């Protein structure tokens, strides 16, 4: 950590291309509230580095040698304990990618296209570090809807029975990409009340964040593509 900087978010960059890692490091390290604590070029290195460095956010490439980003994400999140589970932000070249969908199901907090502006990368890191999910762009919901619709059978999500009618409606609104403020406006309730509802939904369903809530809502048929 550099002297005089109030670092609030630590980041591990995982990509098999040196130029990509260097580019991401340069833009992130220039931010006063972000510190790049490490790099990895394979999924296996990512798992080891995440356990050793305990970063707040892991930027995870999808396709890598030795161990792909999906498997690395699963291992990192399975091994993490307590409040030290990192947020995983998946990086991909393709917006409709089965690996990305599976990474979201495994607990990743969202994904970002590699050709996005670097300013979007900085904002994405801050967003997921704050506990939010990067799924607001319609392309992300399209990704989830695309692959959820291909499932031969709907997964049996028993936890949905625990939700009250209001909580089920909140889950639908989360899946449509609404923020707490927007949910509050739709339901005509206070924003803090909306936030509480969202928190209870995640807790009852055993979900890490909104990204997993979106995946579950589509898989369970609570939200349908194009709705």
From TrEMBL:
InterPro entries: CheY-like_superfamily, NreC/VraR/RcsB-like_REC, Sig_transdc_resp-reg_C-effctor, Sig_transdc_resp-reg_receiver, Tscrpt_reg_LuxR_C, WalR-like
PROSITE patterns per UniProt: HTH_LUXR_2, RESPONSE_REGULATORY
One annotated GO biological process: phosphorelay signal transduction system
Gene Ontology molecular function: any one: DNA binding
CDD domains according to UniProt: LuxR_C_like, REC_NarL-like
Occurrences of domain HTH luxR-type (ranges): 156-221
Domain of life: Bacteria
All residue ranges annotated as the Response regulatory domain in the record: 10-129
Chain positions found as 4-aspartylphosphate: 61
Pfam families in alphabetical order: GerE, Response_reg
Sorted UniProt keywords: DNA-binding, Phosphoprotein, Transcription, Transcription regulation
Name this protein carries in UniProt: Two component transcriptional regulator, LuxR family
Protein source organism: Goodfellowiella coeruleoviolacea
